[in-house]
Protein: Sulfate ABC transporter substrate-binding protein
Organism: Moraxella nasicaprae
Amino acid sequence: MTKTAFFGMTVATGVLALTACSNDKPAEQSPQASQGSTTELLNVSYDVSRDFYKEYNELFTKHYATAEPAVKLSIKQSHGGSSKQALSIKNGLQADIATMNQGSDIELLADAKLVDANWRSAFANNAIPFTSTIVFLVRQGNPKGIKDWQDLTKSGTQIVIANPKTTGNGRYTFLAAYGYGLHTFSQDEQKTKEFAKALIGNVKVFENGGRAATTTFAQRNIGDVLITFENEANVIKGKFGNIDIVYPSYTINAENPVAVVKSVTDNKGTTKVATDYLAHLYSDEAQELAAKFYLRPSNPEILAKYSKQFPAMQTFFPTEVFGDWASIMKTYFSDGGVYDSLATQAQQP
């Protein structure tokens, strides 16, 4: 999607990746999980998590099989922009599990009474099993000399990002830049807005998801820099090898909240299996798997094991700087909000 068409856009249908697995164990056997039956779970997740969950499903299936060998487990995945996925669940997609990259997406489901209101206390670490952060991907050798956020405002620099109006990846990108501005300009809102407007003005492509942005930058070879999650950046570098990762001086922590969609699981009889699926994300083996995919584990001991892989960074959580997610969405991403205002100004000659 070009920069001239990112307002009021209709999000393209998210990519649906189906991964069939078999056999796993809930904390307590669910009504659906009777001998000889197949228990099906649908994990509706955000765009760039597909690779992690593909392997996690296999890991969880083996865990489940040790206690319930007679019960077959089939886990399906659906991936797309985080907010689009949450809206799909609200509109009737029969997800057992929601694994998003933005707290407001789970809150949307809680407000609709599809997820328990106390979802953050259902699992450890406020239901955040791992985090990521926002970094830059540049062409090999960093020909544009990009070292920090302000370098992205230089004339002639072409940026690729996911759309902040519709995706968690894009919102984290915008909030990371805006938070950097507030930090750098001593909370001066006007200077921060001028900085953010200049950065937005250099965006060549606003994509409909993080993985789509990856394709545009890495495969279509468009743009000088891709702003994306740290885990996605490392996956891209490992796959293509002709790009470099730049860690900015100050950036955002991206939470990855999870919840059981009880309105669905209570009806299907899969609540116990779905709960165990999410609880197992905190197991040592799942935390190790998260590190393999460059997601920062919530277990501090496992995170410390990978200190070379995860450089120490000065970071902030969005709720620490901008208020709760409801306030963030209203102030920055609602129609006519801060982002819309700056993007409109950036389009003017």
